[in-house]
Amino acid sequence: xxxxxxxxxxxxxxxxxxxxxxxxxxxxxxxxxxxxxxxxxxxxxxxxxxxxxxxxxxxxxxxxxxxxxxxxxxxxxxxxxxxxxxxxxxxxxxxxxxxxxxxxxxxxxxxxxxxxxxxxxxxxxxxxxxxxxxxxxxxxxxxxxxxxxxxxxxxxxxxxxxxxxxxxxxxxxxxxxxxxxxxxxxxxxxxxxxxxxxxxxxxxxxxxxxxxxxxxxxxxxxxxxxxxxxxxxxxxxxxxxxxxxxxxxxxxxxxxxxxxxxxxxxxxxxxxxxxxxxxxxxxxxxxxxxxxxxxxxxxxxxxxxxxxxxxxxxxxxxxxxxxxxxxxxxxxxxxxxxxxxxxxxxxxxxxxxxxxxxxxxxxxxxxxxxxxxxxxxxxxxxxxxxxxxxxxxxxxxxxxxxxxxxxxxxxxxxxxxxxxxxxxxxxxxxxxxxxxxx
Amino acid sequence: xxxxxxxxxxxxxxxxxxxxxxxxxxxxxxxxxxxxxxxxxxxxxxxxxxxxxxxxxxxxxxxxxxxxxxxxxxxxxxxxxxxxxxxxxxxxxxxxxxxxxxxxxxxxxxxxxxxxxxxxxxxxxxxxxxxxxxxxxxxxxxxxxxxxxxxxxxxxxxxxxxxxxxxxxxxxxxxxxxxxxxxxxxxxxxxxxxxxxxxxxxxxxxxxxxxxxxxxxxxxxxxxxxxxxxxxxxxxxxxxx
Lengths: 438, 241
Prior knowledge:
The structure holds two protein chains of two kinds. Chain A contains 13 helices and 18 strands. Chain A is an alpha+beta fold. Chain A has three domains: 6-63 and 430-436, Uridine Diphospho-n-acetylenolpyruvylglucosamine Reductase, domain 2; 64-180, Uridine Diphospho-n-acetylenolpyruvylglucosamine Reductase, domain 3, CATH 3.30.465.10; 185-415, 3-Layer(aba) Sandwich (Vanillyl-alcohol Oxidase, Chain A, domain 3). An eight-stranded antiparallel β-sheet of chain A has the order 14-11-13-12-16-17-15-18. In chain A, strands 5, 6, 7, 8, 9 and 10 form a six-stranded antiparallel β-sheet that branches. In chain A, strand 5 and strand 6 form a beta hairpin. In chain A, helix 10 runs antiparallel to helix 11 (384-397). The mean pLDDT of chain A is 94. By secondary structure, chain B is an alpha/beta fold. Chain B has one domain: Rossmann fold, CATH 3.40.50.720. Chain B is globular. The A-B interface holds A 1-5, 23-24, 26-27, 64, 67-71, 80-81, 92 and B 36-37, 40-41, 43-44, 47-48, 87, 89-90, 142, 182, 185-188.
């Protein structure tokens, strides 16, 4: 058997699927060699971006850069290689009373991906993006040099790499701060909102909460448009916990994780099943307001409880469409977007709405802008392209833009916002697509 | 715990699996020919589990300095030392390749394992876990140099287990089948027949706890090899396997 490094590869949305070279190495020397001998390289972590951002002619998988380097348990400073998953960091940090300052909706992304996408979470309005807590990282650049980048060293590379989608090089390792927690639980409140006005009001009212996000039913029309559930939370203190959780507040019992064994046939997810799901989800909670304690897994990573959940969208895959619209025009823009989706009949099952806070002007490649962001999943089908074009137009009209980590087909005027990333070594299929469509 | 071939991903996953259960070892001895990369792993288990370890440089191809190993004592030895080398198509008549495969998988390895077997025999306790291969179950034309070396190793382990039984020392033979590791990167392996190091570690750890004698990492390999072993020779010789 001869090795053949050209393989079928695709990311979380199973769209697009390409055949490209994929390699992984575990020593800096070998990675340098790979970088020297190829052009059009992109680093890829756990393949949890949705589209073509981490695909290229030559893909460098960071899966063997999976070692922890240091953990200062006194000051909460953690250092590890870029291919380490956030889940593994949490496994080590939580029992010691630490948590990630910023986490996206899945813990199965790598540290390198978190920096390259400058991920955000339910606390963006209060605590910003992932990069706020990154102290330094080492970057293998286009010349094959390893640079230590921080706010005081190789400053330009530091900021270009943050949110830079891997186009400045391969992140080898990074050091970052963790936040103190007393317990592994979240004090949560879930509040139903009947429509868009109500949920926007709730966002304003929930600003002082560290975490807030809304799940939104985007198949509702007319006066029910924007029907949603606001979920807000704070890390619980030990004294607040119910007795039975108080005993071992930093340890969670491990739960079995079921796996979706195969791709669902296309007919499973359609407008009717999505409507039923949305109805059940909204009515699962009978009271207008529920207050409770949930473990951090339930609060931050509700979808991680099922392995390979992306397979329910079938073999042809799905996209996630996430945009942000500046706050001033937010309500009007959101209403238009929701109307367009409801009319299209291309129902999205999991739509998440969030109000971003101020962006960090230094992190110029980061996606968030102050305003409303909505993330929707759509199955890939013949009507999708048209719908994306319509949505893109609305986003453009209201001065918004698209999250590159999710993008696989949006128009380049909404995705062409990265600066200082141009070089022939590190290029992704996404970046080429954006430049070619300009 | 003593690890031979500490840079192996399966060995590292096994160490992590053993530590995840909360067990602490006085010290883990990481024997390796590749000190630099193993250092990363030593740091990793220190950060993750606060586990103390020591790296011992050991190049099985060269002269082994047994004096250096004489202080190593433990109840558990995990040996992942192995070398796939080139298969028949690329390297059958490459003398260096043939020698290296035989040396690392059998000729040089057996005396080393014997050294630790003797220690365990003296202490009258312990378990030796050794990775052999499904390739050793029957010589097939595609890689029978590797296969025959592993067949020798499997036979050695079977005899050793028999010998050590009355001395209260247990020997576990592991036959991994296809593994998703550095050794096989880029090979077109059927994913249904391929295990990740993590999966393998879980199976091996369970087999160790249950005092199993021989274990296939994926059960399907037991079936496959049973069929391959039982094909009559006059048919087998005509097959392209």
